[in-house]
């Protein structure tokens, strides 16, 4: 542990959370099962880093289980390697400062790791159980619990691409499947639109990125751009993600839109 590590103490723990959230003044012990949602981290306002992760279900020690997500913020040394500390589906006991609305907590200390709790263990088993939906057009779609998306592989204009359908806690993807069905039923038409939009939006920028004296025409640009995956969102929006063929030195080419508005945006994230 770093000698300069000075975590906040007592009620001062609330300063770890920079969100507009009210906390209680009492440190309590909670037991819970670590969620499969992603973990994160960022610099704290003191000489520490904030490790962010979540419990999928939890309880105040000795009380009833709450099947609700609890976000945990844990101050750790600046140089700590913390992402592997708590694996999804494992059970732990922490001393925490709990928010008034009981949706967030700041970890004061680890009380006990890998605790035994039959009720929480049953929930942990369900957390890792595969959730698979069978569809006619897209075959099996498997839930990626870490990002809460259903994922699969589909045929787009005779090309195999990954498809992801964002969902919510209810795992309802009815609207997403309807959007995907319309897109794929008219794949050739949409591909023409995507190609034209990508050229109009990004060809000039692509040539700005090329070495001096080198220029791409529209055909060369499209030949180097290759579709990797399609993401469908609950509100009818979608994103087409392309490999850039090193046009933008490894950045993806993202084309976004919706069935109602058509293609509306382009970006080169990554």
UniProtKB/TrEMBL annotation:
DUF2262 domain residues: 136-268
Q: Could you tell me which InterPro entries the record lists for this protein?
A: DUF2262, DUF7021, UCP033642
Coiled-coil positions are none
The DUF7021 domain sits at: 21-126
Task: Please state what the protein is called.
Answer: DUF2262 domain-containing protein
Organism, per UniProt? Answer: Rhodopirellula halodulae
